[in-house]
User: Fold these one by one.
Assistant:
Number 1:
Amino acid sequence: EAQVTQNPRYLITVTGKKLTVTCSQNMNHEYMSWYRQDPGLGLRQIYYSMNVEVTDKGDVPEGYKVSRKEKRNFPLILESPSPNQTSLYFCASSLTSAGGHPDEQFFGPGTRLTVL
Amino acid sequence: DAKTTQPNSMESNEEEPVHLPCNHSTISGTDYIHWYRQLPSQGPEYVIHGLTSNVNNRMASLAIAEDRKSSTLILHRATLRDAAVYYCILRDGRDDKIIFGKGTRLHILP
C-alpha cells in the first residue's frame, strides 16, 4: 500500500532532550516536506527536500534540522526541544519537484509532540 | 511567495452543493491552484488542482476565474463526511516552498 509513515505517533519529552521524528515513503517520491500545525495558525512548512541531499527552509525552520540521505526517508531532528515546539507534525511527499508539474502531496498520519 | 485568502468558516446543508471561494490576486503564470482538505484527527488529503481550465474529478470540481485571481471549489452534493478544513494553496513548479494558510472550516448541517 502506498503510504507515508511517521514514527512515533505520540511523544512526550522534556526541554533540551534531543529527539528525531522519522518519516518514510514507499512511492519513490522526489519531494518531501515537514509541516507543523498549531491551533489558529493552520499548517506551516518547516523544511522541504526536492531530492536526495537537497533540503531547504520553509516558513518556520528555526529549532529544526532535517536530512535526506536516502530518497525514502526524511527525518525531522529537534536538537534541543523547547515548549514552543509542542505541536502536531505532518510529513508529506509528492512525485515531482522544481521544474515539473507540482503533483498532489500525500500526508502521513501525524506526530503529536509535547515538550514539557 | 504568492498567498491565498479564504473565509474562516462556512456552513452548508447536507445534500446541497457547496461553493468554497479562494482569492489569489498575486498568482503568477506558473502557479498551480491546489485544494486539500483535512478531516478531523487526520492528515490533509488532496482534493483537486488546476492551472487555467476548470477541472472535475470524483471528489469535486474546480472553477478558475478567467483572470486566475480567484477560484472556487465545488462539492456537488455535500455529505456529513465532507465536514473538514479546506485549504487552497498555490504551487509553483519552480519553487517548492508551500504556504497553506488557515483554510476554511466547512460545517455540514444535517
Number 2:
Amino acid sequence: QLLQSGAEVKPPGATVKIPCKVSGYSLSDYHMHWVQQAPGKGLEWVGLLVPEDGKTIYAEKFQGRVTITADTSTDTAYLEVRRLRSEDTAVYYCATATGTDAFDIWGQGTMVTVSS
Amino acid sequence: EIVLTQSPVTLSLSPGESATLSCRASQFISSRHLAWYQQKPGQAPRLLIYGASGRATGIPDRFSGSGSGTDFTLTISRLEPEDFAVYYCQQYATSFTFGPGTTVDIK
C-alpha cells in the first residue's frame, strides 16, 4: 500500500514536499506516479519517477515547478511543488502500476491548501 | 497530447438499472492502454478496468469494458447502491491523461 500524510497548509510562494511511503513491497519495484485533483475537479497526471535509475517525466503543465524524488532507504517517494499559488490547492495522490501500466495502487491523498 | 472526452457528464439512474459510459479519444489508442477508474467522495480512485476490457482484481463482473481505436465504453449492469460514483477513463499510450469524468447518481 501507499501511505500519505493528511494535510499541508502553505502560504503563496512557499514550497511543499509531500511524502508517500511504500509498504508491503519495495519502492524500487515499480514506477511511482503523482496525480493532482483540485477541489470538485477531475484527475490530472503530474509526473512519474522510475526508481531504479531516478529518471523523471513530468506533465508539461507542471514542468519546472515540481520535482519527484525517492529515498530508497526508507521506501519513500516525494513530490515537491515550488512557488505555490492558489491554483495548486488540491489533493495530491501517489499511485503505482504493479501489473499493466494502469494505476492499481493509490495512496489516500494529501490535501495541500495554499492560503495566506 | 491525447485528449479524452467522456459522455454523458451525468447519468441519473435507479439501482438495478444498467449504465453505459462513453470515453472518446482525440486520436487512436491501443486498447491495451485504456483504463477506467471509480471514485467516491473523499476516497482515492480505484482501478476497475485495464487494457480496455480487463477487470482489475476484486472488481465484480457487473463491470465490463469494451471498445477500440478512439471509442471506449464502460458498462455497469444491475447498478448496486455502492456503484453511484464518478467514473474516469485514462489513456496511458502516450504519456498519461484522464477524461473529465462521468457522475452516476441516483435518480
